[in-house]
Amino acid sequence: MTRKKIEILGTGCPKCKSLEAATRQAVESLGIEAEIIKVDKMADIVARGVMVTPAIAIDGQIKSSGRVLSSREVEELLR
Predict the structure, then answer these.
(1) Could you give the CA distance from residue 32 to residue 53 in angstroms, rounded to a whole number?
(2) Is-catalytic flag, 39?
(3) Can you tell me the distance from the alpha carbon of 51 to that of 48, in angstroms, rounded to the nearest whole number?
(4) 13, 42, 47, 52: which is the annotated catalytic residue?
(5) How many CB atoms lie within 10 A of CB 58?
(6) CA separation (Å) from 32 to 17, 29, 65, 77?
(7) Is residue 13 annotated as a catalytic residue, yes or no?
(8) Cis peptide bond N-terminal to 54, omega within 30
(9) How far is residue 49's CA from residue 29's CA, in Å, rounded to a whole number?
(10) Which residue, among 66, 64, 46, 67, has the nearest Cα to 56 in the 3D structure?
(11) Is the pLDDT of residue 1 over 80?
């Protein structure tokens, strides 16, 4: 399996931190290799087409925005 590139897009708000924690838990639970990157500059977030944070991108594609996913939901996105 190839290493996943996961981006958490958000300005560091509590919801963004919760999404990051759920993502780390999902990666650990699945036992996959992943690089988790925090994107916190608003200009970079908007340039990706995200208008509501937090958002998650996997391998360059926005998969969710505007809500905190559970670790189980993140696992489903990573499968």
Answers:
(1) 25
(2) no
(3) 9
(4) 13
(5) 17
(6) 21, 8, 23, 13
(7) yes
(8) yes
(9) 30
(10) 64
(11) no
From 16, 39, 45, 78, the catalytic residue: 16
Domain total for the chain?
1
Q: Give this prediction's pTM.
A: 0.93
High-pLDDT (> 90) share of the chain, %: 96
Query: Each residue of 6-15: pLDDT tens digit?
Result: 999 999 899 9
- 27, 15, 10: which is closest to 74 by C-alpha? 27
Give the structural domain span for 69: 4-78
- Distance CA(13)–CA(27), nearest Å, equals 21
Give the pLDDT confidence of 22-52 residue by residue, as tens digits.
999 999 999 999 999 999 999 999 999 999 9
4: pLDDT strictly greater than 90:
yes
